[in-house]
């Protein structure tokens, strides 16, 4: 699995791009989601679960029609309890904790301003846990 940082996507929307990803999970939305969709390979899928950049989707239907791309929304707010419990159960059995730990680093709250610059520059990969 390869992770791609937000900084690696153009600030402007590219409506059609070279196939790069088989699938993706997007927690940003807006231009980033549009750019991800333009790079999904034939018959690929994108799960959208966040709106950090915005709720708009400045994209075309080209990836959906010409590549058969699927865009699936992930509802973590109104999803029924049994569905959420099933998802958490799957995480407890299917997620390799060692891999998750290998891509996780810790930092202090005082480090956040400098870390933000590093994240935006694409220099930090994986998860950053902030100790409060």
Structure, explained:
- There is one protein chain.
- The chain is an alpha/beta fold and 132 residues long.
- The protein folds into 2 domains: 1-74, Rossmann fold (3-Layer(aba) Sandwich); 79-124, no CATH class.
- The chain has 5 helices and 5 strands, in the order E-H-E-H-E-H-H-E-H-E.
- The strands form 2 sheets. Strands 1-2-3 form a 3-stranded parallel β-sheet. It has a two-stranded parallel sheet with strand order 4-5.
- It is globular and about 45 Å long.
- The mean pLDDT is 88.
Can you tell me the residue ranges where pLDDT is under 50 for at least 5 consecutive residues? none
H/E element order:
EHEHEHHEHE
What is the 3D shape?
globular
Q: Would you identify the CATH H-level superfamily of the largest domain?
A: NAD(P)-binding Rossmann-like Domain
CATH-defined topology of the largest domain:
Rossmann fold
Q: Enumerate the strands of the largest sheet in spatial order, edge to edge or round the barrel.
A: 1-2-3
CATH class designation of the largest domain: Alpha Beta
């Amino acid at each position: 699995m390869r992770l791609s940082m937000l900084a690696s996507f153009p600030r402007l929307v590219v409506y059609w791009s070279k196939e790069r990803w088989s699938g993706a999970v997007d927690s940003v939305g807006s231009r980033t989601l549009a750019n991800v969709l333009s790079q999904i390979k034939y018959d690929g899928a994108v799960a959208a679960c966040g709106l950090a950049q915005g709720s708009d989707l400045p994209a075309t239907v080209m990836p959906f029609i010409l590549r058969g791309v699927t865009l699936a929304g992930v509802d973590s707010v109104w999803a029924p309890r049994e569905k959420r419990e099933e998802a958490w159960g799957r995480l407890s059995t299917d997620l390799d904790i060692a891999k998750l730990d290998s891509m996780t680093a810790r930092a202090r709250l005082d480090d956040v301003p400098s870390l933000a610059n590093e994240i935006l520059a694409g220099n930090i990969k994986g998860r950053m846990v902030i100790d409060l």
